Amino acid sequence: MVSLRPFTFTSQDATLRTRSHFLADAVVLVGVAASMGVLATGHWRKGTVALGVCVLGAGVMRAVLPERAAGLLKVRRRWFDAAWLLALGAGILALAMVVPPHNA
Prior knowledge:
Blueprint: H1 11-40, H2 44-64, H3 78-98
Helix pairs in contact: 1-2, 2-3
């Protein structure tokens, strides 16, 4: 038989945890939505740069935020998540800069 320890926390802990999760997730979500909006208007380079910057920002937030405030940015260990997001953001930015413009 498995015995479980009771998990208790105060309402202040729950409020802080909810607000910090919401803040990190909301910043990334708003950034991605804004970059998708720019992409939808046909400005692919500006939208891709905005997306790359947003992913880089997510990597920086994952590196500096404590575990309880990382929200949905927390998937694996901190160093792996931060490195992966920073590399992905740098790759997106590099591709946005390397692709030549289409002259019609």
